Structure formats: C-alpha cells, structure tokens
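Okay, any thoughts on this one?
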Amino acid sequence: MVESWATLGVDLHLEPAGSGGLRRGLTDALREAVRSGRLVPGTRLPSSRSLAADLGIARNTVAEAYADLVAEGWLTARQGSGTRVADRPVTPPAPTAPRRRATGEPAYSLIPGTPDLASFPRTEWLKAARRALSTAPFDALGYGDPRGRPELRSALAGYLARARGVRTDPETIVITAGFSHALRILGPLLRGRGVRSVAVESYGLDAHRGLLRDAGLATPALPYDALGTDPGPLDAEGAVLVTPAHQFPMGTPLHPDRRSAVVDWARRTGGLVLEDDYDGEFRYDRQPVGALQGLDPDRVVYLGTASKSLAPGLRLGWMALPPFLVEKAVAAKGHIDTCGVLDQLTLAEFLTSGAYDRHVRSARLRYRRRRDALAAAVADHAPDVRVTGIAAGLHAVLRLPPGTEQSVIQAATWQGLALHGLAFHRHERAVAEPLDALVVGYGTPSDSAWAGALEALCRVLP
C-alpha cells in the first residue's frame, strides 16, 4: 500500500531550482536554508524517504544531496540520530547600545483603567485551564453558541447573583470580548430599535462615547454634582449609559434616590439603562453597592468584564440582558461564538472552584494598601490636595488648587510619569462644575514600580 506523504516525517519547505538538475537544485536549496539561518544548528531534517515523498522526487536524489552537504560540513549524519544541521560557528551580531527609554516614553504610569498585570494569578489560572480542558466535551472546540459557552454563562449567573445582586440566568447572558465589544453590539441594536440618542455622564471615557457615535447615536451629557449623575433631564433619549456603583472617574456611587429615578425613567418611557459595572468587586470601606440591574432586570442591561479583576488581555466580558433583547443581541454579535472558548472554559472553572473569589479578596487587600499609602503620601507632601473617590475601585481623584491641572500634567511628563487630568475625561458638553484634578490609577504599577511611581507623583503635586 502506498503511504500518503501527509503521514511521513516532519515538514520542511524547500523549492529546488536551477539549471543543474534536481540533485544540484536540492543541494543548493538546503545549503541556502542553513546559511541563511532558516535551519538552525541541531535541526533534524526529514528522512530521505520522507523528503522524497514530499517533493515528488527519487529517494536516491535526496540521499545524494544529503551526502554532498555532509561532506561539505553543512549537515551531520549519525546512526540512530538521523540527519541534522551541523553546529557551525555563528558570527555574533554587532553589540548594540543598551536600550534607552524613547523620548516621551514614561518611566511610570498612573493611568487609570488597568490592574496590576504582574499580579495576574498565573499558577491558579493554569490549574483551572488544565481542569477545564481535561473535562471539556468535544463539541466545546466547535464554533459554538454565539451567546458563549454554557459553562461560563452558568457560572456567571451564580456569581453575579451572589456577589453583585444581579437577577439573571444563563439564557439571558451573552459573552463578549470586553466592554467595547458589548457597545459595538448594543449600538446598532439600539439604532435598530429606533433609538437616536444615548445619554451619557459628564465624565467618562471618550472611547465609549465614540463607539456609540459610530453607531449613529447622539451622546448628550447628563449633569453631575455631589450626588452623582443627575437623571432628571432624561426624556426621549431611548437609553442611558451610567456607572452607578462607582462613577468613572469621579469615584462616587449614584445616590439611592437617583438610582430609583433612572430606573423609573426607563419603566415610564420604555428606555434602557446600560449599566457599566467595571470594578464592582473592589470596595474597601463598606459592603459593595449592588448592581442597579437588580432593581429592574427588564429595563437594565448589565455590563461587566474580567478586565479589572483579572486582566484586559483576556478579552472576556458579559452582558446580562432583558429577555426581549437576547435574540437581537445574538444576531448583532453574529452566528458563531467569537470569544476564545478555552479562556471561557477556564474562567468558568476559575469561578466555580472559588479561585476567582480568593484572587479578588487578595487583590482587594493589596489595592487597599496602595490606596492608603497614596492618601498618606499626598497628605504629607501636598496638604492642599484633597484625595477623593477612594471608597472603591483602582483609582483616586486628587482635587488640585484651581488653575493648576495642566501645569501638574506637564511637570509629570518631565518626571517621566504618565498621568491623566480630569479634563481628559470630561465630556465636550459636560454639565458639571469645572474642577482641576488628577485621576490617579493606583492599580496600574507593579509592586516593584509602585514606590517609584508614588514618589514621582508627590514630586509634581503643588
């Protein structure tokens, strides 16, 4: 029986060429592959029989080409070891100067929005990945349900109900590749429902407003004051995007009366509330503020991610949707699951095994210590600066003396410190008192960089 070429040896891409015949062409191609470094010393080559079958030429032609290159010293051939690329002296590359920090590249970053990536629980994640993969059904590796893996949706339904007060079930959860992906799904969905305007907060991320605008939706700003975002002006917008548990970036929870008011508006008008619960796990001074979605699951779309609790690079998020929106959201997402199945299975195992809770509790303690160190250092070095918004989350707002925000940002640049001022997050039509402030992401630096970042911050404060 003739064996298929697909079952033999190892793959080696070669293109014998030249006018000297197949043997010479093959010899030249192999020699050039070794000389150029494409085949590094020690690389085992296919057997002459295997390579001949791959190239569709006689086995003797390959054997003779190998013999020529062994004689020249390019290859070695030993009984039981096969034919390999010979060890040859390699001219080291010219020494280069030590890499210097590029002009403008910061030495430290206190930009909010990222956790300490060095503290990602690699060992526990690997254990969860092994357990998840070993027990996954074969069909888990197929195209899958566009809502996401049922294991993860089931684990999330239980966790969100227990930890965040979310009222949902696996059938109404849709897995996304993060918050931005969720907005890309929801934007066209809202537009298709006749929505033309989504109200947003006076302070927030312009990237999120941009995704809504890309879907053809206007993004008027709601007023902001000491009680948080004011839903009073809401009228016929159709939807509103809010961060009620911990306003980003101001750091205040939405006042209970206003939580009720925004849900009442949605019930009265048929509008939708898009709830961004971006860092709900990290509350330090009292019990976490529960999800707004618990007040009315039929009018609130709950949006969460693993970006702050674990790492944004996982690209895992979720939507807990009102039942009447699930089918439309699935259609907008697409007909196959576009989120990595193995990471979904791993996160499901991470949640159900209790590893996620352990990690969050450990991270909460570490971030609280950083928050306390930040507040103490600012009080010592800049008593005129007030630290606010620190009851929860991974960032703090440092209220500066009037008129100093831009000069502090400039000084930070000179110190090699990346910082955002509050103006960076202000809506172009914000309805809020102008404030000079810094938004300091104390979760971003690694443990080894934290002390240096804090010292650099204190040097630039007025």
